Amino acid sequence: MTDKPTNEDFLRLADPMRRELLAHCYRMMGSVHDAEDLVQETYLRAWRAYDGFEGRSSLRTWLYRIATTTCLTALDSRNKRPLPTGLGAPSIEASAPLVQNNEVPWLEPVPDALAGVGADDPASIVASRESIRLALIAALQHLPPRQRAVLILRDVLKWKASEVAEAVGTSTAAVNSALQRARAQLDEVSPSLDDPVEPLSSEQRAQLDRYVAAFENYDVDALVDLFTKDAVWEMPPFVGWYQGPETIAELTRTQCPAQAAGDLKLVPTAANGQPAFAVYFREDGVYHQFALMVLTFGGDRISHVGMFFEPSLFETFGLPSTLEGSATK
Fold first, then answer.
1. What is the spatial distance between Cα 309 and Cα 306, in angstroms, rounded to a whole number?
2. CB neighbours of 166 closer than 8 A, spacing ≥ 6?
């Protein structure tokens, strides 16, 4: 006769899964802050129900079921989280006044450290990077919540259709139908779950160095050579988005508050398995938090920049609100 599981058992066994569950909730919600709240809710529900856990499935599977149900319940009362590119055509006039919309629940990036991308297992690293890329998370947000859950459970976690059906409360036939529809919609975007994520090449790393130098030296002309010809720049909560190196350069000239070399400071970080930078702006001789920038490469050039002006992201990424010491003008 085995001893009845205790709450202490639950905490010991379940806590190592916290990061992967946060990644799961992030894929569902498109918000690191929502994901953190829902992981807490998942653990609370599981802790309360652990006395009744009979071990017919693994603890991991059981937790994922609870997390999925928790996310689906939350999504009943929440709108999808888009990026500006999901709302309309690109802006034509880069110098036109920016339009800000704080009513839209915008997509948020996730720190690699929170999503488990820094895990020791190379296979885990690849799987995490492929399944939390910014473009993919943005695409997932356009799927209905139940389709989104089915796709994630089947194609990311590799569950059987029968397991997914039990998790989302439907039939196996309905799961297969939802998966087919979700895959068809996702096929229209790039990248897909099947695209490999390669480590940055030496040329890409050199491009990142040039990118940082261009911004910190306020050398806008140098930016043009760093982007692909169809590169996209977007910056929620501003609703416009911009395409092409010359347009991005014009946007930087006319909309960026920097006026001279040294006005901006870029500090490297990592988000969504991609290179990222915390951007600080010099004001009154001190560098203050400005935005979080996530970059995507297309070959050896930058194909997409997401610049996020959500102040709370700095704390989420473990970044200071100001840099130590003052900036000399």
1. 10
2. 65
Q: What is the pTM of this model?
A: 0.93
Answer whether 28's CB lies under 8 Å from 68's CB: yes
Question: What residues have CB less than 8 Å from 66, skipping those under 6 apart?
Answer: 42, 45, 46, 49
Please choose, from the candidates 261, 313, 268, the residue with its C-alpha nearest in 3D space to the C-alpha of residue 289.
313
The amino acid occupying position 320 is P
Q: Convert the pLDDT of each residue in 74-120 to its tens digit.
A: 999 998 999 999 999 999 899 999 999 999 999 999 999 999 886 66
CA distance to 225, 268, 294, 313, per residue, from 228 (Å): 8, 22, 16, 28
Phi first, then psi: what are they for 132, rounded to 5°?
-125, 15
Nearest-CA neighbor of 190 among 115, 75, 85? 85
Beta bridge partners of 94: none
Q: Which of 108, 277, 313, 274 is nearest to 191 (CA)?
A: 274
Tens of pLDDT along 33-68?
999 999 999 999 999 998 888 777 889 999 999 999
Maximal CA-CA distance, the chain: 74
Q: What is the CATH number of domain 1-78?
A: 1.10.1740.10
Residues of the chain with CATH 1.10.1740.10: 1-78
The DSSP result for 67-131, as a single string, is: HHHHHHHHHTT------GGGSSSPPS-TTSPP-B-SSS------BHHHHTTT-S-HHHHHHHHHH
Structure-token pair, residue 300: 């050896």
CATH code 3.10.450.50 region(s) in the chain:
202-316
